[in-house]
Amino acid sequence: MSDYNIAVIPGDGIGIEVVAEGLKVLTSAAERAGIGLSFDHFPWGAGHWLKHRVALPPDAIETLGAYDAIYLGAVGLPGQVPESVGVGQVVLGIRSGFDQFANVRPVRPIPGCPWYLGHRRPEDIDFVVIREATEGFYCNVGGRFAPDAPEVEDIIALRSAFGESAEIAVQTGIFSEAGCRRVIRFAFELARKRNGKKKVTSTTKSNALTHAMGMWDEIFEQVAAEYPDCEHDWMHVDAMSMRFITNPERFDVVVADNLFGDILTDLSAALVGGLGFAPGGNLSQTGPSMFEPPHGSAPDIMGKGIANPIAAILTAAFMMEMLGEMQVAEAIRAAVTTVVSNGIALTPDAGGCATTEQVGDAVTATIAI
Ligand code: ATP
């Protein structure tokens, strides 16, 4: 009997290529640790839509609900399938189906990865960014209005230029007290479990977004009071972006709303050497969590065998960590570090000439448990 049943959705493009390597590494590490993993593959995604006009079947959420975790590659075939079908139905459908409210991106660069900071070493940096993933400015609330529309009457009065415009666009952020509280609590819980630094930094901009971020700040202070063993502080998002570059070693757990988190997580991908090295996951408290590297299906390099599988391999390690299997997670990370820092097998994005498969093989051969 398996200890964990994993649903695998390779998806499209390089998603299929990197997931194969992630599974190769994961299987080997789990076997050595005496942990039973079973994998069921689901062919959903943009390619599935091209063949069957279905990207995600209607009973997919019910099916996936039986698994301990979901491991996804990347979804989308831009130009062939509308993004609203591929990413929209599959990725966003699963995220909302299981209320995966915390998008988590570990920021732990590996010595030997492409490195853009002259004043810090990869070993100095180890933090995690948590992005609230269900509300905020991505709720699609608002509209485009003529200046004489009754909906924007009050807005027009705010600035003279508004009245001179042919059109007014309004985009509203929706922040719920419960939504903010649960992701901030999640951040403190993670800080307690991580590496002993136990520090949570809140991303805000309450000097400009007074209503939404004002509430966010208040909730952050309330939640922080529940965790007296954890340090806490906050930064405006503009200052935080600068600090990600100047003092990345000061962070432990960073929590942000959907919009700021989206931007900061891409900035943090640069800190670990680019999309080919950045792991990620969408965590739920009520259903299975979904672990996916943040990169897309990269149609420009699909089928060439040069996609970097490290992001997917580290994503598999992150999945094992979240399932409570630290030994397997650490063994995979250690093997990746050995392979990357010694330049044993690197894909072209990392300055090497190895294939996707060769990198997967090299990491598998290096696992020591
Ligand atoms: P999406 O909108 O789904 O994020 P995208 O096409 O905007 O997709 P990605 O596919 O994530 O962006 O990546 C942008 C580029 O970065 C790719 O076209 C590819 O050249 C490169 N890239 C992304 N992931 C990898 C990887 N794992 N290995 C090598 N190169 C990668």
Task: Walk me through this protein's architecture.
It is a single chain. By secondary structure, this protein is of the alpha/beta class. The protein folds into 3 domains: 1-108 and 277-369, Isopropylmalate Dehydrogenase, CATH 3.40.718; 115-135 and 175-272, 3-Layer(aba) Sandwich (Rossmann fold), CATH 3.40.50; 136-174, no CATH class. Helix content is 41%, strand content 19%. It has 13 helices and 12 strands. It has helices at residues 14-33, 46-52, 60-64, 86-97, 153-156, 160-164, 177-193, 210-226, 237-246, 258-271, 310-322, 326-341, 356-366, and strands at 4-11, 37-41, 69-74, 102-107, 127-132, 136-145, 168-174, 199-204, 231-236, 253-256, 281-283, 289-291. The protein has a 10-stranded mixed sheet with strand order 2-1-3-12-11-4-5-10-8-9, with helices on both faces. Helix 1 (14-33) packs across helix 11 (310-322) and helix 7 packs across helix 8 (210-226). The mean pLDDT is 95. Bound molecules: adenosine-5'-triphosphate (ATP). The site of adenosine-5'-triphosphate has 15 residues, from helix 1.
Q: Could you report the average pLDDT, rounded to the nearest whole number?
A: 95
Q: Architecture of the largest domain, CATH level 2?
A: 3-Layer(aba) Sandwich
The oligomeric state of the chains shown is: single chain
CATH superfamily of the largest domain: Isopropylmalate Dehydrogenase
Radius of gyration over all CA atoms, rounded:
21 Å
- CATH topology name of the largest domain, in short, is Isopropylmalate Dehydrogenase
Order of helices and strands: EHEHHEHEEEHHEHEHEHEHEEHHH
Characterize the biggest β-sheet: 10 strands, mixed
- Give a count of the beta strands, DSSP E runs of length 2 or more: 12
Poorly predicted runs of 5 or more residues = none
Number of domains: 3
| Strand order of the biggest β-sheet | 2-1-3-12-11-4-5-10-8-9
Task: Using the coordinates above, name the CATH class of the largest domain.
Answer: Alpha Beta
Give the proportion of residues in helices: 40-55%
